[in-house]
Amino acid sequence: MKKIIHTPDAPAPIGPYNQAVMLGNMLYTSGQIALDPKSGELVIGDIKTETTLVMENMKAVLKAAGMTFENVIKTSIFISDMGNFTAINEVYGSYFNEATAPARETVEVANLPKYVNVEISMIASL
């Protein structure tokens, strides 16, 4: 049976979806963008600041499910400009132990919700 994960410490969904869904010991998160969870405002401009907020939002969702970044087994990173890859990767990498980092893909896309520069989703397991 699936369990809906929700926390006020991450942005509320802006459509017909949930922050995350737990099925058994598996957690599937929706993509997080740089929305401030308190104000609901976008924080874009500096790519490192934007990526940090995305990761902090994801951290809150993982915490609500009783997990940490150590539980993450797969991530998907969508970026609007591959030229930002190095800066995004630097911030992203600071949240993981390189020896146990999850599998990942990074894809440049034509556009993202609210015209942000980065969106990240994760799959985690207890």
Automatic annotation (TrEMBL):
SUPFAM superfamilies reported for this sequence: YjgF-like
Top-rank taxon: Bacteria
GO cellular component labels: cytosol
GO MF terms, alphabetically ordered: deaminase activity
Gene3D superfamilies the UniProt entry points to: RutC-like
Family from the record: Belongs to the RutC family.
Listed name of the protein: RidA family protein
